[in-house]
Design a protein that fits this description.
25% strand, 28% helix, alpha/beta, 5-stranded parallel sheet, globular
């Protein structure tokens, strides 16, 4: 009889809990620790921030599902983790003992890396979570009444380029629809060495694809650049050459801004000796099991990329955080659920994530699907598919994904078969 605790905000913790519920015995019990009662599909939040979607359409009621499947839950944030004593302490003072622990989240935005940001909340927004997105939506409605220059930026160390590109291309579409684009100069700031790098060295012709889209839409862009300072009406950027040497600064007015900040592991993770590497991310073996604490597993961006056994990316002049697509996150979730079930049966873990990447970026009326097998180059499959049908496919896939989660279904058989036919299984076969 084992007590499994899952720490995670939203869909990642829900998926892990539902998969484990099917794999472990009835004598084992699962507790989920989450800050919020609702899980949201983060890839849909840029659309919510522009009023294109409603928040209730892209979220899942975790409490309702946990009660349906008899999974214990605690809605609170984590204050500290003590692996030696096998206990976590919540911010409400409650102590939660565990036999096995899954960290399915653990990343927090590093807003303090951008000088002046705390003084300009009326101008700068984000879509990092539901609360920030709702504030961004209110700010965008006010912006439409009094339009002006707009700044969209990824900070060095950001891990969500997919959302940033989706936002900038969609907001251009929305402003044209409202006949306001002529009043809104748009600037895109990114630490990537070139457009379409996406934190993974680019996919196919992604550089040409995004340069073409940005130039045809008159979106001004700065690569190898970062925001140096922000106040209520202006943004100052600093940009670098290919060798990483500063080559200029610019300052321009901004009426509205959306920023994807750098991400860092939560304090309760970095304060545990031996849990993380020098970058502050959790170091695991190929089974996503902590290298030091074998009863701790990890999922998502908080896992050090070296743990996925992928080829190292070429160094970039500025720090580009490596993203974790929804497909890769689900791959890691299935891996951890399978391996923990093996451990509870007193067997060795034997599943590995495939490390493949698949995601879609919506342009407004069109879109592009990106397929990378594996996610880091060199790849076996490196492909981009464009067209209006991708826009329709993304909306359809989002609705399908949410509907199956609301039904408590994590991976239907036909979905598994489809990805196998695409030569993109979520997890590697059992080791011999």
């Amino acid at each position: 009889m084992a007590h499994i605790v899952i720490i995670g905000n939203g869909i990642a913790s829900l998926t892990a809990a539902l998969q484990l519920k099917k794999l472990v015995s009835d004598q084992d019990w699962i507790t989920v620790v989450s800050e919020d009662q609702y899980g949201v599909l983060k890839s849909s939040l840029p659309s919510v921030s522009m009023g294109l979607r409603s928040l209730k359409d892209v979220r899942v009621d975790l409490k309702k599902l946990f009660e349906k499947f008899k999974i214990k839950y605690l809605f609170s944030s984590v204050s500290s983790l003590h692996p030696e004593r096998q206990v976590i302490i919540l911010n409400n003072g409650k102590r939660v003992p565990f036999d096995n622990l899954i960290i399915a989240d653990g990343m927090v935005p590093a807003w303090d890396h951008i000088p002046g940001l705390n003084k300009s909340h009326n101008m700068v927004h984000s879509t990092m979570n539901a609360d920030e997105t709702m504030r961004a939506e209110l700010g965008f409605k006010d912006f439409l009444l009094s339009p002006g220059p707009m700044t969209i930026a990824c900070a060095p160390g950001s891990m969500d380029y997919q959302s940033a590109y989706q936002y900038v291309l969609n907001v251009d579409h929305v402003l044209r629809r409202y006949r306001l684009r002529d009043k809104v100069p748009i600037r895109f700031i990114t630490p990537e060495p070139f457009l379409g790098h996406l934190g993974i060295g680019g996919i196919g012709h992604s550089n040409n694809l995004f340069e073409k889209e940005f130039r045809s839409r008159q979106i001004e862009f700065y690569c190898n650049a970062a925001i140096d300072k922000i106040d209520k009406t202006t943004v100052q950027i600093i940009y670098f050459d290919r060798e990483g040497a500063e080559c200029g600064r610019k300052k321009f007015n901004s009426r509205y801004g959306v920023i994807w900040p750098a991400m860092r592991a939560a304090d309760y993770i970095t304060k545990v000796n031996g849990l993380t590497d020098k970058t502050g991310l959790i170091q695991t073996n190929k089974f996503l099991q902590s290298s030091l604490y074998r009863n701790i597993f990890a999922i998502g961006e908080v896992v050090a990329q070296t743990s996925l056994r992928q080829a190292a990316l070429e160094p970039t002049p500025m720090e580009t955080g490596q993203p974790c697509s929804d497909f890769l996150r689900e791959s890691m979730t299935s891996t951890v659920a399978g391996n923990l079930a093996e451990v509870l049966r007193h067997r060795y873990p034997c599943y590995e994530p495939t490390g493949n990447g698949f995601f879609m970026i919506n342009y407004g009326e069109r879109g592009a699907a990106f397929l990378a097998v594996p996610q880091n180059p060199p790849r076996n499959i490196d492909r981009i598919i464009e067209g209006r049908f991708v826009h329709i496919m993304q909306r359809t896939m989002e609705r399908y994904h949410l509907s199956r989660l609301r039904a408590g279904v994590t991976e239907p058989i036909f979905e598994r078969l489809i990805f196998r036919l695409m030569k993109m299984p979520r997890i590697k076969q059992k080791a011999a």
